[in-house]
Structures are given as structure tokens and as C-alpha cells.
Specification:
Elements: E1 2-6, E2 12-16, H1 29-34, H2 39-44, H3 48-73, H4 79-95, H5 106-131, H6 135-165, E3 171-176, H7 180-191, E4 197-204, E5 218-221, H8 225-231, E6 234-237, H9 245-252, E7 256-259, E8 271-276, E9 279-284, H10 291-326, E10 332-338, E11 344-350, H11 357-367
Parallel strand pairs: 3-4, 3-6, 4-5, 6-7
Antiparallel strand pairs: 1-2, 8-9, 10-11
Helix pairs in contact: 3-4, 3-6, 4-5, 5-6, 8-9
Length: about 375
């Protein structure tokens, strides 16, 4: 059902509470709070203080994860070496923008972390070559890089979840427009707070427009951009056709303006913008398809896969033994997958189901009338 809430500009606005997502940071008492946010409350969760807290939490996570990865990777690692590793990676991540407190998405953050670890790997190889390079040093560098990437990424994931729960993760944003496209975008950002944008409400383009049902408060019109700019860190346009930066950005003093276009079939990584006269082009980088890069990728895959494969062989053996103990029979099974150019691949996997799993499922469903396949729905 709809209820009526008062916007920051003092206008009553119908709020759609029935369709609001029921999870994450928008549940419980926070759901009610989002309909009555005052300017002071909004400032509490935005601005330099929030970004500083987010950066401090992320740096603390890397301070813990980076030395841990360096120490676990090899017996030769010492605490001074681990400290240097942490300092190098933190500086690299800072330069890549991971501590900015404003996005990017988890997938992009993983890519940026991989670039930072790759820079550390290259520096580590240079140091090893200066003192005498050997296969052991190469294997240690590879293992260290893999552990740093994995531990750092999952540590960041834990910290990100804690920050989301405390309404600190993501830059506060105001959406321009009160139509269905803007509402859909707001709901998606609320449902996926890890994307790094926390919508506060809507701004109407037309000063005479009366907004209808909205999933968030109505912040005002273009005349109120000065006040909106005190609360929001990012201004979002749901379409490029809405973009009137000269009309809104200078009034709001918001330093970041984001234009969102629905391009579901377009890759989201490795994109650059280019100015083409009066037009803006989106350059899609697909350098991986260039022949020399394919050979380089294949070499890197082998260089990493072989040492890591040898490293996890004992673990695979232990898991196979556990599987055979729990359910006698083959510990591995083979499945067919579609590979490059449509060629089929045979993939060997550890068995994670009982051999008679289908019969066990039927027995379980038969014992539970509510989930019985014969129960009329």
C-alpha cells in the first residue's frame, strides 16, 4: 500500500512501500527512516567523513591481509618483508582508486586488485633477479601473488558487508527524474548496495511536475539543487537525454555526475570514452583477441596454473579420500563443457553428490508432504 511522506522541500509525496526491496540496509527500522530523512541525517552518512571512514577500514583490511599472504606464501618471508609488501600494495591500491569511497563494483575492484598484485609480482621478480634468480623464487612469487589477491579480495568483501550494514558503503546519490526508469534504477541500487551508490531520493526536472509514486523521498526540483548538493555526493541521470549539466551541476556543486544507459548486451569492463567532435564514443577494448596477447595469456595461464596445481594436489588428494570415505565409489567425475570456438571440453571435477542422490531426494520429498511432488499445488 502507499503512504504519504513529506519531502525535503515540504511537498507531500506518495511513497511505494509495498514494492520496496526487503533485504540489506533497507529493511526494518531503516526502511521507515528512509522516508523521513532530514538534511542533517543525510549529511551524517555522506561527505569527507564517510569517505575517510571507508578508506580507513579498507586500508586496515589490507594491512591485515597483505602481510598474512606474504607470510603464508613461503618460509623465507619475514615480518619486515611482509610490512614492505603491505606498504607497496596499499600504495598501489590507493593509486588505482580502491580507497576513494565511491565504487566501483566488486567485479571492477577485483580487476584493479589484480593489477596491483601484478605490479607487486613484477617488482618482486626484479628484486629476485638482482640477488640471484631461481625457480624457487619464481614459485614463491607466484604463490605470494595468488594469496595476496585472494586474501585481499575476500577480506575486502567482509569489510564491505560490515560497511553496508552501517550505511557507510557507497556514495550518496540523487536521481534526476521521477519516471519509471529512475525508479527502476533506484530500486536496483538499493537492492545491490555493493555497487557503491546509495540513492537518497529524486529531483524533478520540471518545476511544475508533481511526482507520483516513488520508492524514495522526493528531494525537490531543480530550484532546490543547492540544498540537494549539500546532501548528495553524486548526481545520477537515468538517460543521457536528461543530462543538463549546465543547468544542474553548477547549482548543486556536486563534483560527480553519472549518466546511466541501459545496455545489457554491452560488456561492462575495459571501456573508455572518446570525444568524436560533438559526439561521445564508447571504446570497447578487446586486446585479448590480438594474436600476440593470446600467446601471452596462454603463457601466463601455464605459468600460474602449473605451480598452483602442484600446490593444491595434496589438498585434492585429501578431499578425494574424504569423498570415498563418506560415499564409496569414484571420487571424480567428468562433465562436458563448451570451450573456445564452440569446441567441447572434458572437465574433471570432485564429486559433491551421493551416487544415489536422486533416490535420496525422492525419499526425502516422500517424507515431507509439503514438498511432495504428488501434493497438489
Amino acid at each position: 500500500m502507499n503512504d504519504v511522506s513529506t519531502s525535503l522541500s515540504g511537498q507531500p509525496v506518495a511513497q511505494d512501500t509495498a514494492k520496496r526491496p526487503s533485504h540489506g540496509l533497507w529493511t526494518g527500522h531503516r526502511l521507515a527512516l528512509s522516508h523521513s530523512l532530514s538534511p542533517n541525517a543525510l549529511k551524517t552518512y555522506s561527505g569527507p567523513r564517510r569517505r575517510l571512514l571507508v578508506a580507513a577500514a579498507l586500508v586496515a583490511g589490507d594491512v591485515v591481509a597483505s602481510p598474512g599472504g606474504a607470510l603464508v606464501a613461503g618460509a623465507a618471508a619475514t615480518y619486515p618483508v611482509a610490512a614492505v609488501t603491505a606498504a607497496f600494495l596499499i600504495a598501489a591500491y590507493f593509486g588505482l582508486g580502491l580507497y576513494a569511497g565511491y565504487g566501483p563494483s566488486p567485479c571492477e575492484r577485483f580487476r584493479l586488485r589484480a593489477l596491483g598484485v601484478l605490479a607487486f609480482f613484477a617488482a618482486d621478480l626484479l628484486v629476485a633477479a638482482s640477488v640471484g634468480f631461481n625457480v624457487g623464487a619464481l614459485a614463491a612469487a607466484v604463490c605470494t601473488g595468488v594469496l595476496l589477491l585472494v586474501l585481499g579480495y575476500y577480506t575486502e568483501g567482509i569489510i564491505r558487508r560490515l560497511l553496508v550494514q552501517r550505511d557507510l558503503w557507497g556514495a550518496t546519490a540523487a536521481l534526476v527524474g521521477c519516471d519509471e526508469g529512475s525508479s527502476k534504477l533506484a530500486k536496483r541500487l538499493m537492492a545491490e548496495p555493493e555497487l557503491g551508490l546509495r540513492p537518497l531520493g529524486f529531483v524533478s526536472e520540471d518545476t511544475d511536475q508533481q511526482p507520483g509514486t516513488l520508492p524514495l523521498p522526493f528531494l525537490g526540483t531543480l530550484r532546490d539543487m543547492a540544498r540537494v548538493g549539500e546532501q548528495a555526493e553524486v548526481l545520477i541521470f537515468a538517460s543521457r537525454r536528461r543530462l543538463t549539466v549546465d543547468e544542474t551541476a553548477w547549482r548543486s556543486h556536486i563534483g560527480k555526475v553519472l549518466v546511466v544507459e541501459d545496455a545489457q548486451d554491452l560488456q561492462s569492463l575495459w571501456l573508455n570514452t572518446r570525444t568524436l567532435g560533438s559526439s561521445v564514443g564508447v571504446e570497447i577494448r578487446r586486446g585479448l583477441y590480438v594474436a600476440p596477447n593470446l600467446w601471452l595469456k596462454r603463457g601466463i595461464d601455464i605459468l600460474i596454473a602449473l605451480p598452483v596445481g602442484l600446490l593444491v594436489l595434496p589438498l585434492i588428494g585429501v578431499l578425494a579420500l574424504v569423498i570415498k570415505t563418506v560415499d564409496p565409489g569414484p571420487a571424480f567425475y567428468v562433465q562436458s563443457r563448451v570451450g573456445r570456438a564452440g569446441r567441447p571440453l572434458r572437465v574433471v571435477k570432485l564429486r559433491t553428490m551421493y551416487r544415489d542422490a536422486e533416490r535420496r531426494l525422492e525419499d526425502q520429498l516422500g517424507q515431507d508432504p509439503l514438498h511432495s511432488p504428488h501434493q497438489p499445488g
